[in-house]
Fold this protein.
Amino acid sequence: VVCVENITNVAALAKVVMEETPHVMLAGKGAEELAYKNGFQAEQLLTDSSEAAYREWLKTSEYKPIINIENHDTIGMLCLDQHGDIAGACTTSGLSYKMKGRVGDSPIIGSGLFVDNEIGGAAATGMGEEIMKTVGSFLIVELMRQGKTPQEACEEAVQRIVTKNKNIENFQVAYIALNKKGETGSYCIHPGFAMMQYKDGTNSRITSAATLDS
Ligand code: ASP
């Protein structure tokens, strides 16, 4: 789903589109109508603190759609269940103070998330435009299909972006991946990205290696 307002659990709404309609993507008001028909409640998502931050931003209104270490919020999840089936979800509010109508990578199939139950899954966070231009999550799954480990595939997908950009100091991209064997990988441009892994009853926080690790 894209450009949905007033609904917190948009990943659950995307699941409704997948399971209850013959389509793979719904946008804006149509997606919201589907939500209400399926029992979702309209919610006020603007908090006092984000309204105050927005009013502060309005004073200069500098349009700077840059993703760095502090200002992004995508959550990507990949799961392998006891039957060996893989599932994935991701959710985001995207860039702060973006143009109305701007769509990021998260809802774009193959960019912010891709799962092929024969191979594995991948999810992204960071500068959506760069992730979309390289269809990053699809790329990672295809690299795993060709025999790369999740770690190698994440590194190659980040490298694809790094070689195409002279300004990688200015933005972050990070990927996570999981294959059918339950192997995981993650990689990012700027140090600071970590993923949580739950395996065999244990939670672990894995700090991702980065292109700009010194
Ligand atoms: N990937 C998101 C976007 O570009 C930003 C984020 O990571 O939160 O919209």
Remarks:
- Residues 67, 72-74, 92, 94-95, 104-106, 125-128 surround aspartic acid (CB under 6 Å).
